[in-house]
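User: Run a structure prediction on this.
Assistant: Running it now.
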Amino acid sequence: MDTNQSIISFNRAQIYQRDHLILKDVSFDIKKGEFVYLIGKTGSGKSSLLKTLYGDLKLIGGEGNIVGYNLRSMKEKDIPFLRRKIGIIFQDFQLLKDRSIADNLLFVMQATDWTDKQKINKRLNEVLELVRMTTKGHKMPHQLSGGEQQRISIARAFINNPDLILADEPTGNLDPETSEEIIQLLQDISSKKTVLMASHDKYLMDRFPQRTIICTKNNVCEQ
């Protein structure tokens, strides 16, 4: 693995919500294979930074690159292709409640142009094995615990073998013991992928210390 390769790179970036400046002069690099925490109080700009990374907010000023895409010059039509190189994990799992776990994963694959049934089945098994959920494919989301649902959302984030995982408060709805299991899983995964995880949970960050980026006072700094 080329650990010098930048997966995310910002240089004096200006991040806006409509006409309102949220973060100014944002400069940091995240290299391939790193696990990095993103922290900050509510309203500090964490969500705006994440939205900029996956193309939901346009980068207005400065420079920003992610998984080979220039966030300033990127066209609207490029955003779906950017998002195939990023796996996103949400706090509230966002599983489709009307279909099985396997069908939740299949839904993503069909939406991203998987057509070969043999390759589809192979990949489904691979991502379920990755999160240690190989026996749960036939279950409905409501039949799983919160921790199990979050494991499935991690599996979903890995479907297209992304270069980067963005985890937005992935332990926010979980009990402490389950939260530790999810962080351990994500840190194990970061040996193969780059992970940027937004979190409020100081206990977890103390328990599993990693490089930390902080959103504060309209700016970004490192701890």
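The radius of gyration is 17 Å.
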